[in-house]
Amino acid sequence: MTTDTPIARPGADPDPAGAAATCPVSHVTVPAAHGSCPFDPPPAYREAHEASPITRIALWDGAPCWLLTGYRHSRAVLADNRFSADARLPGFPFLTPGRRELVSRTTPTFLRLDDPEHSRQRRMLTGDFIIKRVEALRPQIQQIVDEALDRMIAKGGPADLVQEFALPVPSLVICLLLGVPYEDHAFFQEHSRTLLDITAETDRVEASQRALTDYLGDLADRKLREPDDGVISRLVARGELSRAEAASMGLLLLIAGHETTANMTALGTLALLENPAQAERLREQPELMRGAVEELLRYLTIVHLGVPRVALEDVELDGTLIRAGEGVLCMLSTANRDSEQFEDGDALDVTRDARRHLAFGFGIHQCLGQPLARAELQIALATLLRRLPGLRLAVPFEQVERRTESVVHGLRALPVEW
User: Fold this and answer.
1) Is 370 exposed, middle or buried (0-12, 13-18, 19+ CB in 10 A)?
2) Residue 406's pLDDT is what?
3) Does 326 reside within a domain?
4) For residue 61, is it within any domain?
5) Residue range 389-409: mean pLDDT, rounded
6) What are the percentages of helix, strand and coil residues in the chain, rounded to 5?
7) What's the whole-model pTM score?
8) Spatial distance between the Cα atoms of 326 and 307, rounded to a whole number of angstroms
9) Residue 1: inside a domain, yes or no?
10) Structural domain of residue 290, as residue ranges?
11) What percent of the chain has pLDDT over 70?
């Protein structure tokens, strides 16, 4: 295991012909195309990493950007407050014009804010996602998982595990936690998919963003009149957020709370089906499941588009000068396969100690909902393995349809039988 990459402040008079000026612009484009294996990072990022963990690239609009593919480099940047998460700043890296347009029309949440405003908003939610609170939810999560499996088994196979299990479970859980009516799930799932689709036309993205914001704004108003014990109700009761801020925060929690876990559940299941010895070991030793979920998070790392930051000042990173105003993309998918940190990182090993993975990010913006995601994945995958020992693909592996256009990498469908 290596130490963190040193990040040093350059001298008072940095050489204008220094590292940034002499580093050629790579031919790598972002977002890069996915390869044939649904578990692996895009090949272009892996090839870039073999040449250098720090690569200078140009975005679609010609803006300079740095592609970080190494573990210690990404971890160091995400922990450094000289790199900003504020998408309103000049130089912030957007992968498409549509993503930039979306941010310009959206009230920012703590995900895209720096301290102190980041901490002010995030503190409002910390108590709802702490481990103690999530542990208390485990019986309800188990019930939701069992009932979803009961329905799928009763209908008989073959079944689409995405629609019958992986998507409804986290949707039900996040609705329970936020106080969102589950009967509206088709509405918010459809619009969530559009907002996460990097290929969607701008007018479609704007329409979905407006529909969900209006929906959550109306829901926040209703919670003021008819409070309950859900997160949204408690948020608006504090009186510290505007209606627009409450709607944007609810939107973030709703989308992140079901899309990420749904895709991890489906991809994690597929990974175990393709590694039957690993799955059998988990059946024989269910106590390994907590560690196995960390390994699956590392191995799959469903955020394939990178975590964006922009430099607030000149920063030297491992001998490379990143200038103020230049964007940075931390590629977590390649970082979590970095052999410097994870030996034989391209292999799935449910006994590996993968706790230092970056699947949830790192630093002050590390995923708020990670205790909930962990609990859902542990319960969902353990229950699948226990109750359906004969679970298998109903189509050849190569025919499993993937979601490659989404901010969150995953599967469109997972046909299975048992």
Assistant:
1) middle
2) 86
3) yes
4) yes
5) 93
6) 50, 10, 40
7) 0.90
8) 14
9) no
10) 7-417
11) 94
